[in-house]
Write a structure and sequence with these properties.
mainly alpha; 2 strands
Length: 151
């Protein structure tokens, strides 16, 4: 567990930013664990050598170049105009309405004809089909009443 703890807090351990209790615990572990000693020694060398190199300074035009690239990128993105999106809502509602009317007219035609077409060669009596699957055969059904009134 201490090896995992050391690997997890290695940078804070090297910079002495850990609480005193954890720092002492990890120092005790390092005194007894050869692999953690080697890891800490290698990492400390690399970490401390970073201070020898100067930090790169961005050019004076760095910020303006970034802003220009972002503006160019956003200008190249295609966004649907708001007017077009506003038109889509009524068009979609109209299509939904037309589809609903069409389906209801087709259903009305099936009920008025008194038969459902299952395949090109087979015709099913609509009232018998409704009675068999949905209604009790002993009662006069709404489908029967509708079909009898049409005749």
């Amino acid at each position: 567990m201490s090896c995992l703890l050391l690997k997890h807090h290695l940078i804070d351990f090297i910079e002495h930013k850990l609480p005193q209790e954890k720092q002492l615990k990890l120092q005790d572990h390092l005194a007894n664990c050869r692999s953690c000693q080697e890891l800490c020694h290698r990492f400390s060398g690399v970490y401390n050598s970073l201070d020898e190199y100067p930090l790169p300074e961005p050019s004076a035009y760095f910020y303006s170049k970034i802003v220009t690239k972002l503006e160019d990128q956003s200008a190249n993105e295609y966004v649907l105009p708001v007017k077009f999106l506003r038109l889509l809502k009524p068009v979609a509602a109209g299509l939904f309405l037309v589809t609903g009317i069409t389906v209801s007219l087709l259903f009305r035609e099936v009920v008025n004809s008194g038969s459902l077409v299952a395949s090109p060669n087979t015709t099913i009596d609509a009232s018998a089909w409704a009675n068999e699957f949905y209604l009790d055969n002993n009662e006069e059904t709404m489908v029967d009443l509708l079909l009898n009134n049409e005749n």
